[in-house]
Specification:
16 helices; 398 residues; seven-stranded parallel β-sheet; globular; four-stranded parallel β-sheet; alpha/beta
Length: 398
């Protein structure tokens, strides 16, 4: 593709400003960014990409720079952001649980007449400003069909509105050295263990950020406490079934920082001794690179989180998703990519009843499970190709 034609007959590579990286306390929010960066690298290799993040932790920034050495990461400096807005040709809103950067999209529209697009979000709340912002985009890709349907019902008139996979599906950051060292130290053999991730109904951000609880925090905490046994007992049953009926072991691991202790308290500690001896508890947090290097060496993953399963399927690893009513509609993307029978609504008894036999089938027939994951990934890749071609057309429209 020829370089972008710009004012004054200057010819240069197109410049994409990626607004992403919302927080770093969970590997899902971290993984959005390297996933979209990889897609840009694959489909727009000629583009100069600048990342406009929320504050990155030092270790996350190092991980991104190792994988994407050409990436320009904007500092938290008003002048540098203003320069990027003036110099970039296209603003791309990265994947997230909502229109996270609505203020920045509005700022882009106020200061420029240049195009922007929205990539792989969930959207379930609508007001006049959101409808206007999304309608003004070149395209809006929703990571679940529920969001896409609601966008249409709520009067959004963006010219291209389609299903577009969460950016984290394309994440390929790795830390093989750390992963293999951990597995070796804990007696986990490649292809002979499953991963499981716990989750409370509400993430205890007050604990993660070491701040006083608000009244709303107390309400959420009470709900989480009331449902924690209901939600985690089926996971323990699945762990017991796998370790007693197959040669597989189980690794209890976190997606966010709070889930380390949750995993110990709700999954590991209550297990009977004959099961516990075949279970490994990861007692410290990790980044997506080490997590992914671990997942690809496993036979699969199950639990109550979303983005570890996304990273798994994106790399051909079988993964089951448990969801509940407190979450957004993001879990329904599993139906959208053809993996509906690997989606479990923990508020529906019939779904809960399916969980243990489905986890057991992953362990007993890993070849069939991998084939099923591959079919889901094939559909994801088709949609990724279509979405990136749309971005290319928008970027080179002039």
């Amino acid at each position: 593709m020829a370089p972008l034609q710009t004012l004054g007959n200057e010819r240069r590579p197109p410049r994409v400003l990626l607004r992403s990286s919302w927080q770093t306390v969970n590997i899902g929010d971290i993984a959005h960014t390297p996933g979209v960066l990889r897609l840009l690298e694959d489909w727009l290799p000629e583009a100069e990409v600048r990342l406009w993040p929320n504050k990155l932790s030092d270790d996350v920034e190092r991980m991104l720079r190792r994988r994407f050495p050409k990436l320009i990461i904007l500092p938290h400096d008003h002048a540098e952001i203003e320069k990027a807005i003036a110099q970039c040709d296209f603003l791309l809103h990265g994947s997230g649980p909502s229109l996270v950067a609505r203020r920045e999209l509005a700022r882009w529209r106020q200061q420029t007449t240049k195009p922007y697009g929205i990539y792989g979000i969930t959207l379930t709340k609508f007001d006049k400003d959101i409808v206007d912002l999304v309608s003004g985009a070149q395209f809006a890709f929703f990571r679940d069909s529920v969001s896409l349907g609601l966008a249409k019902e709520n009067g959004i008139t963006c010219p291209i509105m389609e299903f577009g996979p969460d950016g984290a599906f394309a994440t390929d950051v790795r830390n093989d050295e750390a992963a293999t060292a951990f597995l070796r130290a804990h007696g986990l053999e490649e292809g002979k263990f499953l991963c499981v991730i716990p989750r409370l109904r509400y993430t205890p951000y007050w604990r993660i950020h070491n701040r006083p609880m608000t009244e709303r925090d107390r309400e959420k905490h009470a709900r989480s406490e009331s449902m924690k046994e209901h939600d985690h007992a089926p996971l323990r049953e699945a762990i017991a079934a796998v370790t007693r009926r197959t040669p597989m072991k189980v690794l209890v691991c976190p997606e966010d920082q709070s889930q380390i202790e949750i995993g110990k308290a709700l999954l590991v500690d209550p297990l009977p001794d004959d099961v516990k001896c075949k279970v490994v508890w990861r007692d410290h947090y990790w980044l997506p690179d080490e997590a992914l290097s671990t997942y690809v060496r496993s036979a699969g993953l199950f639990g109550l989180e979303m983005h570890s399963p996304i990273m798994c399927i994106g790399n051909g690893v079988p993964a089951l998703v448990g969801r509940f009513e407190e979450q957004t509609s993001k879990g329904f993307m599993w139906r959208d990519i053809g993996l509906g029978d690997w989606l479990f609504d923990m508020d529906i008894p019939d779904d809960v009843a399916r969980l243990v036999p489905t986890v057991l089938s992953l362990a007993q027939d890993p070849v069939a499970a991998r084939a099923k994951a591959a079919k889901g990934l094939e559909f994801v890749k088709q949609r990724q190709a279509a979405t990136m071609k749309t971005l290319r057309r928008s970027l080179h429209a002039d």
